[in-house]
Amino acid sequence: MLAQLREQILAGSAEEYLSRLFDRIDRSKLNAFTTLDRENALGQAREFDRSPRKGLMAGIPIAIKDGISTMGIETTCSSRILKGYIPPYDAHVIERLKAEGAIIMGKTNMDEFAMGTSTETSAFGPTRNPWDLQRVPGGSSGGSAACVAAGEAPCSLGSDTGGSVRCPASFCGVVGLKPTYGLVSRYGLIAYANSLEQIGPITRTAEDSAFLLDVIAGHDPRDSTSAPAAAKGRYLDGLDGGVKDLLIGVPDEYFGEGVDPMVEKAVWDSVSVLEGLGATWQRVSLPHTRYALATYYIIAMSECSSNLARFDGLRYGRRPGDDKDWHTTFSEIRSAGFGPEAKRRILLGTYALSAGYYGRYYLKALQVRTLIKQDFERALEKVDLLASATMPFPAFRIGERISDPLSLYMADIFTVPVNLAGVPAISIPCGFADGLPIGLQLIGRPFQESLLLRAAQAYQATTPHHLRTPEVA
Amino acid sequence: MDDVIIGLEVHVQLNRLSSKLFCGCSTDYHNDPPNSHTCPVCLGLPGSLPVINRKAVEFSIRVGLALNCRIEQQTMFYRKNYYYPDLPKGFQISQYDFPLATGGHIMIKGEDGERNIRITRAHMEEDPGRLVHAGTIDRAKYTMVDYNRCGMPLLEVVTEPDLRSPKEARAFLDKLRTILEYLDVFDGSLEGSMRVDSNISLAGGDRAEVKNISSFKGVEKALSYEITRQRNLRRRNIRVVQETRHFDELRNVTVSIRSKEEAHDYRYFPEMDLVPIRVADWVPNVQASLPELPDARRDRFREQYGISDDHAKSLTSEIKVADFYEQVASRTDPRLAAVWIADVLKGELNYRSLGIDRFSPDHMVEIVSMLASQEITEDGAVILLRTLLDRKIPSLVDTEKPGATKAGGQLSVRVCDLVGSLGLARAGDQAVRAAVRDAVAECASAVSDYRSGNERAINFVVGVVMKKTRGRASPAEAHRMVQEEIEKGS
Fold first, then answer.
1. How many whole angstroms separate alpha carbon A101 and alpha carbon A60?
2. Residues 6+ apart with CB under 8 A from A108
3. Which parts of chain B sit beneath pLDDT 70?
4. Nearest to A306 among B48, B81, B265 (CB)
5. How far apart (Å, rounded) are the C-alpha atoms in residues A328 and A308?
6. Fewer Cβ in 10 A, N or C end of chain B?
C-alpha cells in the first residue's frame, strides 16, 4: 500500500492527499492526535509537489507517537509535565524518515509516558477505538493505532515497552511490529523503561510494516544498545516466500484461563490457515510465563522511577507557580505535572530499588528475566516462530478497567514476555469478536523480523481481516 | 597525632581529554560563557542517550595501573539516583559493583618517613553542572546553573583510612597530582579539577565526612579544624556524631549539612543504556604505553646523573620541572644543574608564584655552564636568575606559538649579554689580588685581631674585598687570598 501510495502521490498531489487526511482528522471523534503540525506538513507537501524528491517515503505522511522527539514539534508524552516542550533535535527514526522524504503530520496520543494499556492515562483525554467509540484503542500507542485504522494517517510509529505497539494494533485491527531490542535506535525516544522498549511501525499490512522497518532499522552510534549494521535485513525482499518451510510453536501457557474463547478460537483458526499454506505446528512450553507480569512490572517501574527523575521543570516543560527553594519547587512541579499512573509507577519503582529491597525485587526480577529469555531461546531452537493471541480479549470499554490497575496489568500477559526476552513480535488482525478486531501475535528469533513479516504476509494474502475498515466519519 | 584516622575520596577531572564522558561536547569550557558547551546528551534532554568515551576508559585504566590497582575483567556503569538542580537527569552515571580499578597503593612522604597508602578503588563517573550565585550563597536572590561542566569525565579515587594527619593527606594529594600529570591525563592548574571529600575520625569515635573541598590548602585547613573540633568535643565528653559536613573556605570552619539519619539512599542500579566493557583486553596495550612514573624517574635521576636522593625527589615531584632538568642536565654539569634548579630556581619561582615554563632551559644551561667554568660567582648567578624572572620576559609558552621563532622570542635576551651589562663577570685574579692588598692595608685593626688569634676577624677583610670587587670575586677564593696576604706580611 505505501509503495502504491508513493506512486499515487507522485502522480497526483501530496498536498491534496495530506489535506484530505487533515480534513478527516478535523471531523474525527477519536482524539488520536495531541499535536498536528499542519502548516509545516502542508508546506512540505506543497514543496514536494513543486519539486518532487526521491526517497522510499517520498511525499508520504506519517503520524508519530508523542513519546518520540521531533525537532520543532511539541513532544509531551501525553503528560502535563512536558506541556510546551519543543525538542531541539530529532530522534534517529525521525532523521531516517525525513531522509527518505516522509512528511511528519503530527504527534499521536498515548498513555502518559507510555504507562498503560488503554491510552486512558493520557493527560489530554483518552483516544477512542474507531471500531466502537465507547471502547479503548489499546495502549500505550493508542493514537498511533487508531489513526491508521481510521484512515487518518497511512502509517505511524509507536513504541513498545510491554506491548504498547502490539496491543493497540490488536484492538484497532492493524499491524504492529515490535522489533528485536537493538534493531531500531532509541535515540530520541523518551524513556519509560529503557531496557525493554523499541520503536515499531504501525500499518495496515505486513508489507507496509516491512516497508517502514526498512526505513527506520539500522545501526546508530548514538545508541550504545544499537545492533551492528549487519543485523538489519532487507525486509521487503523475500516477503512473498511463503510459510511452507516453517514450523510454528503454540505455547501451552498462552491459552486457557482468562482468555476470551472467541479470541482463542481466532488464534487456532489462524494456525490452521498457516497450516493450510504449508506450515507445520507443534505445542511448546514457556514454563516461566507465570512470573512474567511481576518481573516486567518490577523492572519497568524501577527503570521509570529513574528515567522520569529528570522532569523537574527546571530546563523545559511546565513550571507553574512561583519558585521556592529547589526541593519544594521540584516537588510541586512533579506533584502537579504527573498523572496518577505515572506517580504510582514512580513510587513503586523507587520502593523496589531502595536499600534493603533491591535484592528482593529488582535483582530477583533480573534473574527471572534471564529464565524467561531462556524459555524463548529453548522454544525457538525447536520451532521457527511462536503463535498466540496478542491480547487475551478484545478492546474493553473506556473506564471499565482504569480504576483497577491490576486487572489492567493482567491484560499484558502475552506481550510483556516478548520485551523481557528482547525478541521480535508482530500483531496482525486475525478475526473479529462482536465487531471488535482480534490480534494474532507471531514471535520470532532475535533479528529474524524477515521471517515474521514473511509469515504475516502469507497470512494476509489469504485472509480478509486486515481489509475491513471501521465505519467512522 | 597517632589517633587521627583519615580517608579520602578524590574527584579528579580527566581534563586532558578533549570531549566529555558520554557526548561529543568539548571539555575546553573554562574561558567560555555558561551553558555554551552543552548538547541534548549532557543536558539530559528527554530521549537522549549516553555513549561512552573510550579514550576516557583508557585514561582511567592508565591511572588505575599507575596506582597499582587491579583492573576489572569487565566493568559497567550504574545510576546513582538523587535530585539536585545541577544534575539534569536526576541521576549521575557512575560505577558501583565492578568498578574499573580496585586494591592499589602508592607511597607518600609520611610524618616519619615513607608510608604506603592503600587505594580502595578508582571508578569513573560524570561531573554534574555547577551552581552559580550572584554574590554569596546567603544573600543571592536566585541560583543559576551552568551545565558546561556537566558530563566532564571524573575519576573518583578512594583511599583506605590510612592517613594519619592533615599533612599526610596533603602529601597524598600532591603525590596523586604528580602521578596524574605524569600520565598526561590531568591538568591540575584548571579551576575545580580536583575536589576532595574526606572522612575523618579520632580512634574510637564516629567519623565525620567533610564534602567538596576544592583546594589542596583547603584540605589541610578543613582537616585541622575538624581534628580540633572533634578533640574539643571529646574533652567535653560529647560524642562525635556521624554526619556530613561542609567546609566553608572563607571562614575556615566545617558546618553540619546532614546527619546519618538523613543520609541519601542512592538506589544504585545498572545503567542499561550503556553496555558492559571488557577492559581486560585493553590492559596489555595501556600497560605498555605507560610513561615513566615519578618514583621510577627519581631512581633513574639519582643513578644517571649522580645527584642526591633529595634533589632527585624535588626535581621529579613536578613533571615540568623534571623535563626542564633533563633538558638542562643533558647539556651541562648535571650535578650543578640539580643544585641550582632544585635549591635555587624552584625557590625563586615559588616566591613569585610562577611555573617553571616561565624560565628558559637555554638560559639555565648558560648560567650553570658559566658557574662551572667559574666565569660568574654564585652571587652573580642568583642575580641573573632574579633579573631574568623579574624582567617580565614573555614566557616560553607564548613564544612557542606557531609562527614565532625561538630566536625572536625570549632568547633575544642572552645571558652573556646580561652578565656584561650587569657587570657580573667574575673578577680576574689580578683585580682580586689588588683588592686584597688594598683591603689588608686598610683594615689594620682587623688584621691585627686576626693575628692575635681572632680567626673570625678575617671575614671583615673578605667583606671589604667583596665590596671592592662588587661581588665578582668568589668569597672562598677571596678568603684564601686574604689569608695568604696576611701571612705573607707577617
1. 7
2. A32, A33, A34, A63, A64, A65, A66, A127, A141, A142, A143, A144, A147, A156, A158
3. 1, 137, 392-412, 489-490
4. B81
5. 17
6. C
B108-112 contacts, C-beta under 8 A, 24 or more apart: B108/B168, B108/B171, B108/B172, B108/B174, B108/B175, B109/B171, B109/B175, B110/B164, B110/B168, B110/B171, B111/B1, B111/B164, B111/B165, B111/B167, B111/B168
> How many angstroms away from the CA of B228 is the closest CA of chain A?
34
A100, A177 contact by CB (below 8 A): no
What is the model's pLDDT at position B401?
42
CB A460 within 8 A of CB A206: yes
Residue in A118, A144, A164, A427 annotated catalytic: A164
- Nearest CB among B50, B90, B272 relative to A312 is that of B90
C-alpha cell at A51: 519539486
The predicted structure's pLDDT at residue B490 = 61
This complex has an ipTM of: 0.96
- The pLDDT of residue B451 is 86
Instruction: State the DSSP H helix or E strand holding residue B83, giving kind and residue range, or none if neither.
Output: none
Provide the 8-state DSSP code for B357: G
Q: Which residue has the higher pLDDT, A175 or A317?
A: A175
Interface residues of chain B, partner chain A, Cβ below 8 Å? 40, 43-52, 79, 81, 83-85, 88-91, 142-143, 145, 265, 267-269, 272-275
- pLDDT score, position B394: 44
Residues B255, B245: contact at Cβ < 8 Å?
yes
User: A32-65: per-residue pLDDT in tens?
Assistant: 999 999 999 999 999 999 999 899 999 999 999 9
Domains defined along chain A, listed by start: 2-287+373-467 (3.90.1300.10)
Quote the mean pLDDT of chain A: 96
Which part of chain B has CATH 1.10.10.410?
A: 429-489
The pLDDT, as a whole number, for residue B430 is: 78
**How far is residue B359's CA from residue B379's CA, in Å, rounded to a whole number?**
19
| Options A28, A65, A69, A388, the catalytic residue | A65
Q: pLDDT tens for residues B159-198?
A: 999 999 999 999 999 999 999 999 999 998 888 899 999 9
From the list A140, A156, A159, A302, the catalytic residue is A140
Q: Which of B21, B265, B269 would you mutate first to test chain A, the one with the most A CBs within 10 A?
A: B269
Q: What is the pTM of this model?
A: 0.90
Identify all chain B residues contacting A69, using CB atoms and an 8 Å cutoff. Answer: 45-47
pLDDT digits (tens, 9 = 90+) for A253-275: 999 888 999 999 999 999 999 99
- Listed by number, the residues of chain A in 332-371 with a beta carbon closer than 8 Å to a beta carbon of chain B are 350, 353-355, 358, 362
Backbone angles phi, psi at B30, to 5 degrees: -60, -30
Alpha helices in A227-339 (DSSP H): 261-276, 292-307, 326-337
What is the structure's pLDDT at B399? Answer: 43
Select from A222, A303, A312 the Cβ nearest to the Cβ of B51: A222
pLDDT value for B403: 40
* pLDDT at site A10: 95
DSSP at A30 = S
Q: Is the pLDDT of residue A116 over 90?
A: yes
Strand-strand pairing, B113-126 and B78-81: unpaired
Q: Which CATH class is domain B429-489?
A: mainly alpha
Task: Please report the pLDDT score of residue B412 as a whole number.
Answer: 64
Residue B230 near residue B202, CB atoms below 8 Å: yes
A140 is an active site residue: yes
Q: Is A265 a catalytic residue?
A: no
Alpha-helical segments (H) within B415-456: 415-422, 429-442, 444-451
CA distance A255 to A260: 9
Pairing of strands B4-13, A247-251: unpaired
Question: Sign of the C-alpha dihedral, residues B108, B111, B114, B115?
Answer: negative
- Of the pLDDT bands very low, low, confident and very high (cuts 50, 70, 90), residue A457 is very high
Is A65 known to be catalytic? Answer: yes
